[in-house]
SGNH hydrolase-type esterase domain-containing protein (Subtercola boreus), 341 residues
Amino acid sequence: MPERRPRGVAEVSRRGRVVGVVACAGVLGILLVALPVAGHGSTSSYEPGALTQAILAPSPSPSPPAGPAGTAGTAEGTAGASAPASDGQDAGGTSAGTVPGAGAPSSVPTPNPAPMTTRDVTPFAPLAPEQLAPAGISPGLGEGTATQAGAPPEAPAPVVVAIGDSIMSGHGLDDPSQSWPERLASRNGWQLTDLADDGTGFVQPGDADDTFQTQADLAVQLDPSIVIIAASNNDLGVDSGDLEAQTMSTVQSLRAALPNAQIIALSAFWGDESPPDELQEATDDIHSAADAIGATFVDIGQPLAGRPDLMQDDDVHPTAAGQELLAQSIEADIAAAFAGG
């Protein structure tokens, strides 16, 4: 017959085993609740594209200089300065085999272990999921049902404003959403406001009697995180001094009102034929203005050169397919510029 333990000791043993089993079940429940979250990731509606990440990625912070080993101000130096532990003690001065902070050993003798009998095991009923899940986590196991209390809010889509002419507005297209700014916005999760207007330039007023300065004034009211502004062939024939001055003034006004925005300045676009020499002046002016305010200048070249099949009948504005080629080219050029390419 197995040796019988005192009643009080048996109760302590049974309670310890029950607590241990319940704790294990709780851990298992937490893991089952957390697995859908780890497997499916965020359910945020905003999935930034590669271009957005390239533009808005913060610059890496420089690491603080590491001090010499053993000097004050570093964790390693502080730890190394501690006095060596004596025999039978760890580095913190605690005697080996004792629990820090536990105080003097208890005077109650520990009972000798005895063989366990079936009467020592107390059966327990499985706990419901809501009892296992920690506070703030839903016990459901389906996709998207586990939510963490206090989780950070979804990242808002970046607010982007486009300032430009009829090439950027999608003139002549059946659907304005086929313009290259709209295409970039769609694939990169932007909240885009395309202020571009037919006939507009830095100096030349457009069909609505507005200039790029007019559009810039509207842009700052939207508090965008990204502004895209392009030089225009609409300014061909204006006084070169006026063009240089107005380009600088407009770009400077954007920076003054939006000190933290990423301002991207693009070179002037032509069509499928060789551009006139005067177009380079417009590109040089916006390049200089961008450098002056710390904006990013991007030379997009002439992606549609030699492609009359991608131009509308007026031979000025791209077709929907031409706008797609522009979107691909400009997206790659902007990403390369921010990557240092």
